Amino acid sequence: MCVADLTNIFNGPWITPPPRIDPPEEQLIEAIADAGLEPPEQVFLDGRIHRFQSGQKKDKTGWYVVFGDGIPAGRFGDWREDISQPWTADIGRQLTFDEVEARKRHIEEAKRIRDQEIEKLHDAVALAAQRIWDGGTPATAEHPYLKRKGVQPHGIKVSGEGKLMIPACTMDGDIKTIQYIDADGKKQFHQGGEAGGNVYFLGDESESPIYIAEGFATAATIHEVTGKPVVVAFSCHNLVEATGKVRDKRGALSEIVVVADNDESGMGEKMARRACQKHGARFVMAPDVGDDVNDFHQKGGDVKSLLAPPLEGWLISVRDFANVPAPIPWLIKGWLPSGCLCMIHGPSGCGKTFLVLHWCMMIASNDDMISWDGRPVRHGKVVYLAGEGHHGLRARVAAWLKHYEVKPDDVDLFVSASGCDLNTPEGWMKVKNHIDALDGKPSVIVVDTLHRFLNGDENSAQDAKIMVDACAGLQMEYGSTIILVHHTGVSDDAQHRARGSSAWKGALDMEASVVMKPNKEDIQIICRKMKDAEEPEPLWLRLQKGIDLPGWYDADGEQVTSAVIVKGEEPCETKQDKNKMSDSDQLGIKTFRTAASNFGQVKDGRFDGVSIEAWRREFYRIYPADEEDETKAAQNKKKAFQRVRLSMLKNEYIRVSEDGKFVFPGGYLAGLDEQIFLSSLRSNKYE
After folding, report:
1. Per residue in 415-436, pLDDT tens?
2. Is residue 284 domain-shared with residue 421, that is, in the same domain?
3. Is the residue at 12 inside a domain?
4. pLDDT on residue 576
5. What distance, in Å, lies between the first and last C-alpha atoms of the chain?
6. Is 511 helix (H, G, I), strand (E, B) or coil?
7. What would the mean pLDDT of 613-642 be, rounded to a whole number?
8. What is the CATH number of the domain that holds 661?
9. From 317's CA, which of 26, 161, 297, 469 has a CA 20 to 30 Å away?
10. Does residue 51 fall inside a structural domain?
């Protein structure tokens, strides 16, 4: 049997013919049908907006705008069904870059034309709605719908057809459309009107709190029970936008309560919680599935109690306050109180995250053998809000588990996947919602770092106050200790205090700084403030490096290692340095004491520091001038004073005010020195 050579038959190799491409008009009609709309019989690709009947109703709410030049592209949709989607013709091949850009322009132009048409339609409907509203008659409580719901009309009207009319208005009161409700409760908006973002107000808008409900009957029930203003959002899908507009109008501190319908689909609750999360409102919902607050009220429910926030135990009489014993509850005895706001700060790379993570892992684990300098640790759940360095944090957790021989399942700690703006309503609610989803309340919530979770300026007292309030909200919600991890300032003078506004320190219950020695292993933690207890003595720790992580390898196949915090000792060079003082330091101490005794400030009967300028003058007066050149001698004195000041700060012989202008004695004898200076200043005054 002979097989024919097909190349002779087809005049060359067989090539599969390209698939048939339908004309763009047919493709557009098919796409409209695929979107669930009834397409028009004929379409025109002329860049103009065309309307068509898209369903059973005779009105033309379907539309399309398509440009036929080049690659046909545009948009189509339906105003009633709130459908709008882009469309591009299939030409049987991949588009070039220029064709893609042209398609984008066509689609954007189609959107612009569509938006203009919608705006014209909305304007026309708004005028018609105003005329219809003006021609309506005031509704009475005898209307079948209001009678069945048991509510008053609150200013709404009745149309000539006997339907209730509720105007959907802007925040300024301009009517945009009307919702009609017939005797059976069927609801319908005026066709083509703009309902999204528009509302109806009941009551005095200036009072507080203000409630936001989906439907009129629910809103009327709330207003009649509370006497407070209520906003009708008309739909759960309008709750987010309506709440945002009310928040913008009322301001950040106004109390807003979003009241959800407890529908079986769960959509009412979902959208109400989203509105609360985004705009900082309180959430309330009818308790039974299928009910709204009007249903709850008609069944005999206590609406006022449902709407009221829980207030038990916040104000305590002096009788109860004085009788309740208040020993300090510690998470880490002597260092970390329970339910406090604390801050751990230090320069970059000083080991502060290692320290805080060590505390958290000790608290979150159930191993009683792991302690902090022999002090007891109370265990509980920990939430670690990590805004940066997640890869490094994973390695540190793995190293801690290996070194302290703790199983991951025995550690009740949760780490955030990213940062958020904690001092905004959206960020705060995001944190709260995720914590609420956990089993049990956290004992500790860490914010690492403060900068990554702060929306604003850390030097602003106002922004700091909002962040402190956000932390206080988490404390009240869960009874947790909040640990803020923060950086110190850049200058050497600022290494003992947190960077930014002084409002941070005033709000803290506990503050500690972390200092790493030049060997990058020895770490000292120094308590700077302990509000309700004695400050513990500084503690030495060591960063033990080289912990191999099983199964962890880098891109070159080398073993990945990390480090953990372990108990340390005071470095030998530090002990020796304490017994040695340079000649310059001795001169610095002498001139500082002279300046403080003669030129120091007294405020409210206490020594209030001496200005750096007064100390500088005294130092320059005593410092030996070996140079004959006066200019060079002055430069030498300036450099010497700078070295002495930094050395005395480092060795904690002195401390500097937050503005850097005044100097105070440092060290454990600081209090005694201040009494000596105060006595000298008083003696000088009466001489």
Report:
1. 999 999 999 988 999 999 999 9
2. no
3. no
4. 45
5. 135
6. strand
7. 82
8. 1.10.10
9. 469
10. yes
Q: At 300, which amino acid appears? A: G
Q: Would you state the torsion angle of the CA atoms of residues 232, 233, 234, 239, taken in this order, to the nearest 10 degrees?
A: -150
Nearest Cα neighbor of 64 from 81, 84, 82 is 84
Residue with tokens 């807003």: 256
Domain region containing 101: 24-124
Tokens linked to 240:
């987010």
Please check whether residues 371 and 517 belong to one and the same domain.
yes
Tokens of 487: 């950086």
Q: Measured between alpha carbons, how far is 687 from 250 in angstroms, rounded to an integer?
A: 62
pLDDT value, residue 1: 43
Establish how many alpha carbons lie within 13 A of residue 386's alpha carbon, considering only the half-sphere containing its beta carbon: 21
420 with 367, same domain: the answer is: yes
The pLDDT-based confidence of 627 (bands split at 50, 70, 90) is low
Return d(Cα 597, Cα 683) in angstroms, integer: 10
> In a 10 Å sphere around its CB, with 0-12 CB exposed, 13-18 middle and 19+ buried, how is residue 460 labelled?
middle
- Residue 97: CB atoms within 10 A of its CB come to 7
Alpha helices, DSSP H only, in 215-281?
A: 216-226, 239-250, 267-279
Which residue type is seen at 38?
E
> Which candidate, 300, 294, 271, 295, places its Cα nearest to that of 283?
271
Do residues 610 and 665 make contact, with C-beta atoms less than 8 angstroms apart?
A: no
DSSP string, 313-345: TSS--HHHHHHS--PPPEEETTTEETT-EEEEE
Condensed to tens digits (0 to 9), the pLDDT of residues 515-540 reads 888 888 899 999 989 988 888 999 99
Single-letter code of the amino acid located at 374: G
Rounded Cα distance between 222 and 7, Å, is 85
Residues 628 and 588 in one domain: yes
Q: Name the domain count of the chain.
A: 4
Do residue 370 and residue 251 come from a single domain? no
Q: Which tokens in the block code for residue 219?
A: 């809103």
User: Rounded to whole angstroms, how far apart are CA atoms 2 and 531?
Assistant: 103
Alpha-carbon span 415 to 393, nearest angstrom: 9
The answer to whether the Cα torsion of 415, 496, 339, 564 is positive or negative is: positive
420: nearest Cα among 459, 470, 475: 470
Place of tokens 């021989």: 405
Question: What span, in angstroms and rounded, lies between the C-alpha atoms of 194 and 192?
Answer: 7
- Domain end position, chosen among 557, 576, 595: 576
Q: What is the CATH number of the domain that holds 437?
A: 3.40.50.300
Q: Which of 529, 560, 576 is the last residue of a domain?
A: 576
Taking the model in full, what pTM does it have? 0.47
**215 CB neighbour count, 10 Å cutoff:** 23
Contact by Cβ (8 Å): 262, 289: yes
Count other Cβ atoms within 10 Å, centred on residue 621: 11
Task: Tell whether 279 and 419 lie within a shared domain.
Answer: no
Whether residue 9 lies inside any domain: the answer is no
The Cα 218–Cα 354 span in angstroms is 53
Residues 566 and 658 in one domain: no
Give dist(CA 332, CA 245) in Å, integer: 46
* C-alpha pair distances (Å), 531 with each of 187, 339, 352, 481: 60, 13, 21, 14
Nearest partner of 243 among 260, 228, 231, judged by Cα:
231
Query: CB 467: neighbour CB atoms within 10 A?
Result: 27
Residues 6+ apart with CB under 8 A from 356: 344, 446, 448, 483, 485
Do 87 and 169 lie in one domain? The reply is no
- Extract the tokens encoding 601: 């400030």
Helix (H/G/I), strand (E/B), else coil: 381: coil
Q: Is the peptide bond before 209 cis (omega within 30 degrees of 0)?
A: yes
Q: How far is CA 314 from CA 297, 307, 311, 375, in A?
A: 29, 18, 6, 32
Name the average pLDDT for the chain: 87
Tell me if the bond preceding 481 is cis, omega within 30° of 0.
no
